[in-house]
C-alpha cells in the first residue's frame, strides 16, 4: 500500500502557491506595469487658467459681500458701538505706524529730490515737488498700502478665528446677519478713518522733508513751506484725499472676505492672513492707477 507524500509528486506544498503568486506579482510590477499613482503635471496654460478662475471666484464673492453690505447699511439697529470700536482698532492703533512711515518717507524723498535738483541749480523747486508728490500720491497710497496691510491682516485673523470656531454659524443660528454684525462696522470704520490717517501722514511727511532740507541743504523752512503752498492747490489735495475712502473700502472688504473664507483651523487662519496682505497691497496699487485717471479727468 502506497502512501502519498504531500511534499512530493505533482502536488505543491500549501505555501508554495502563495510564494509563486507573490513572485509573479513582483515580476509584473517590475516589468513595466507599475500602476499610475501620481497625477500628471499641469501645463502652464492649465495652471494660469486655474488661477484666473480662482481670481474670478474671489471677485464674485467680494462683489456679493459688497452688495449685501450696501443692502444692510440703513437697517436697524445701527451697530454704533461696534463702529466706534473698529474705528479705534483701525485708526488709533495705526497712528504710530503711519507717523513713522510718513516722516521717514518724507525725509528720504527730500534728500533724493534736493540732491538731484542741486545738480541743475533748481533746489528752490524741492518744496514744490515734495508738496505735489505727497498731496497727490505718497500720503494716500503709501498710507493705504502699509497701514492697510496691518489692518486687513488683523481683520482676516479675527474674522477667520470666529469662522473656524463656529461663531459665525452661531450668529446665523440666532437669526442675525453676519454681514451686518461683522462686515458692515469694519467697512464704515475703514472708510471714515483712512482720510484722517492720510491727512495726518501728509502733514508729518511734509514736516520731515522740511526738517531735512533745512538742516542739510540750507533751505529755509519758511521758503520751503511757501513754495509748496504756491504749487499745491485744493484740486491736488482733493485728488489725493478723494482716493482714501475707496482704499478703506478695499481694505475692509478684502480682509473680511478672506476671514469668512477661512477653513482648516489655525493653519487656515495663517494662510488667510498672508493672502490678505498680498491681495490688499496689489488691489490698492491697481485701483490707484484707475482712481488717478478718474480724478485727473474730473479735476
Please give a structural write-up.
- The chain has 299 residues and is mainly α.
- It has one domain.
- The protein is 79% helix and 0% strand.
- Helix 5 runs antiparallel to helix 7 and helix 10 runs antiparallel to helix 11.
Task: Describe the structure in brief.
By secondary structure, the chain is an all-alpha fold. It contains 11 helices and no strands.
Instruction: Please give the largest β-sheet.
Output: none
Unreliable stretches: 1-34
* Total of domains: 1
Q: Gap between N and C termini, in Å? A: 119 Å
Helix content: over 70%
Instruction: Please report which band the strand proportion falls in: under 5%, 5-15%, 15-25%, 25-35%, 35-45% or over 45%.
Output: under 5%
Mean pLDDT across every amino acid position:
82
Structural class: mainly alpha
What is the CA-based Rg, rounded?
32 Å
User: What's the total number of strands?
Assistant: 0
The helix/strand order is: HHHHHHHHHHH
Total of DSSP H or I helical runs spanning 4+ residues: 11
Shape: elongated
Keywords:
11 helices
Strand and helix layout:
Blueprint: H1 14-30, H2 44-71, H3 80-90, H4 95-118, H5 126-164, H6 167-173, H7 178-216, H8 221-231, H9 234-241, H10 244-260, H11 265-298
Helix pairs in contact: 2-7, 3-7, 4-5, 4-7, 5-7, 5-8, 5-9, 5-10, 5-11, 7-10, 10-11
Amino acid at each position: 500500500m502506497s502512501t502519498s507524500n504531500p511534499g512530493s509528486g505533482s502536488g505543491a506544498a500549501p505555501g508554495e502557491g502563495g510564494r509563486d503568486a507573490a513572485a509573479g506579482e513582483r515580476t509584473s510590477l517590475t516589468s513595466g506595469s507599475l500602476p499610475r499613482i501620481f497625477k500628471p503635471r499641469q501645463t502652464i496654460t492649465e495652471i494660469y487658467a486655474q488661477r484666473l478662475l480662482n481670481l474670478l471666484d474671489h471677485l464674485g464673492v467680494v462683489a456679493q459681500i459688497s452688495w449685501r453690505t450696501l443692502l444692510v447699511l440703513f437697517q436697524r439697529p445701527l451697530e454704533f458701538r461696534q463702529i466706534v470700536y473698529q474705528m479705534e482698532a483701525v485708526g488709533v492703533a495705526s497712528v504710530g505706524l503711519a507717523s513713522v512711515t510718513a516722516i521717514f518717507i518724507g525725509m528720504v524723498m527730500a534728500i533724493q529730490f534736493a540732491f538731484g535738483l542741486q545738480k541743475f541749480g533748481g533746489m528752490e523747486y524741492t518744496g514744490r515737488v515734495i508738496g505735489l508728490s505727497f498731496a497727490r500720491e505718497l500720503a494716500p497710497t503709501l498710507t493705504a498700502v502699509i497701514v492697510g496691510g496691518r489692518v486687513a491682516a488683523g481683520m482676516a485673523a479675527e474674522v477667520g478665528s470666529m469662522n473656524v470656531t463656529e461663531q459665525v454659524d452661531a450668529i446665523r443660528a440666532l437669526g442675525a446677519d453676519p454681514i451686518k454684525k461683522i462686515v458692515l462696522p469694519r467697512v464704515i470704520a475703514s472708510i471714515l478713518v483712512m482720510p484722517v490717517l492720510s491727512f495726518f501722514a501728509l502733514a508729518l511727511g511734509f514736516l520731515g522733508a522740511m526738517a531735512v532740507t533745512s538742516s542739510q541743504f540750507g533751505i529755509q523752512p519758511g521758503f520751503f513751506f511757501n513754495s509748496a503752498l504756491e504749487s499745491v492747490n485744493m484740486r491736488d489735495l482733493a485728488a489725493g484725499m478723494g482716493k482714501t475712502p475707496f482704499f478703506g473700502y478695499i481694505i475692509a472688504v478684502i480682509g473680511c472676505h478672506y476671514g469668512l473664507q477661512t477653513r482648516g483651523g489655525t493653519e487656515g487662519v495663517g494662510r488667510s492672513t498672508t493672502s490678505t496682505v498680498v491681495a490688499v497691497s496689489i488691489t490698492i496699487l491697481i485701483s490707484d492707477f484707475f482712481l488717478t485717471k478718474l480724478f485727473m479727468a474730473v479735476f
